[in-house]
Amino acid sequence: MRIIRDYTYLDPADRGASVAIGNFDGVHLGHQSVIDIARREAAGIGAPLGILTFEPHPREYFAPDAPPFRLMSPEARANRLEKLGVETLYELNFNAAMAALTPQDFARAVIRDGLGLRHVVVGADFCFGRGRAGTAADLERFGQDLGFGVSIASLLEGNGVQVSSTAIRTALSEGRTRDAAAMLGHWHRIDGPVIGGEQRGRELGYPTANMSIEGLHPPRFGVYAVLVDVLDGPHKGHYHGAASLGVRPMFHGETPNIETFLFDFAGDLYGADLSVALVEYLRPEETFDSLDAFIAQMDADCDAARRILSAL
């Protein structure tokens, strides 16, 4: 998959795609339905399948001090989109110049003149341009005037709930991992490199792979049954495990992270990239009267996680 970040200087081979437009945070089932429409249009006109999105997320640009809200990093989003068959990712820089474009200017300068898109697909609630003044209906009208096709996808519902990144964040905040997965179409995953820790887990007989969750919406703090993909290095593969997500109150931690214990594993994972899927919320974070009590609880957590994961 090719990633394009500047719409003003394009190789002619990177023009002319059929794209879905949006932020695609989580790449949930609603996003996937929009991408599928773009895929059908691409096949019909013989065009590449693309995604048009922005980085940083416009919400981060306008409110940089707001609490973290993203379900996935840009790298994780790109990996998920590539798995869905996206050929070109137009990950355009969202800056003051982009934010200042009127809806009509965006349609002309970015979609037609810059990227030369042949067809675009958006959700029914799509807004764009300065002040989010443009609607999906406006884009359809601009397309007719400027010579590109437009499809408007209906909003997707599941079990009476509109599938959205907001609804998924709510489910994760409440520890409802399976509800989140039902909307995502896949387990919610935290991706990133393994970073150095304080080695406490190793001393307790539970060595963990530690990862930052900086910049991501924090799921409910506590212990989870997890599926782990080691994405590179000598231990590349799929594993079961248990993970603690939060601030480690037993050891007076302050910065949230995720610490994952891989079952039946021996080896060094420092620097490796991991993808940790949250399958089942087991319990909240706790403090214990002694290390022995803490270790006994970890034993019970791992037993519970093994039972849950063996049933998948």
Short description:
This protein is α/β, with parallel strands linked by helices. The chain is about 30% helix and about 25% strand.
What are the SSEs and their pairings?
Blueprint: E1 2-4, E2 18-21, H1 29-45, E3 49-55, H2 58-62, H3 74-83, E4 88-93, H4 96-100, H5 103-114, E5 119-123, E6 127-128, E7 134-135, H6 136-146, E8 149-153, E9 157-158, E10 161-162, H7 165-173, H8 177-184, E11 188-193, H9 200-203, E12 209-212, E13 222-230, E14 237-246, E15 257-262, E16 273-283, H10 291-310
Parallel strand pairs: 1-4, 2-3, 2-5, 3-4, 5-8
Antiparallel strand pairs: 6-7, 9-10, 11-16, 12-15, 13-14, 13-16, 14-15
Helix pairs in contact: 5-6, 7-8
What is the name of the CATH architecture of the largest domain? 3-Layer(aba) Sandwich
**CATH class wording of the largest domain:** Alpha Beta
Alpha-carbon Rg, integer: 22 Å
**Coarse morphology:** elongated
Largest sheet: 6 strands, parallel
Give the termini separation: 31 Å
Q: Decide which structural class fits the backbone.
A: alpha/beta
Can you characterise this structure?
By secondary structure, the chain is of the alpha/beta class. The protein folds into two domains: 2-158, 3-Layer(aba) Sandwich (Rossmann fold); 189-310, Riboflavin kinase-like (Elongation Factor Tu (Ef-tu), domain 3). The protein contains ten helices and 16 strands. β9 (157-158) and β10 (161-162) form a beta hairpin. The mean pLDDT is 93.
Quickly list its features.
312 residues, alpha/beta, Rossmann fold, Elongation Factor Tu (Ef-tu), domain 3, six-stranded parallel sheet, six-stranded antiparallel sheet
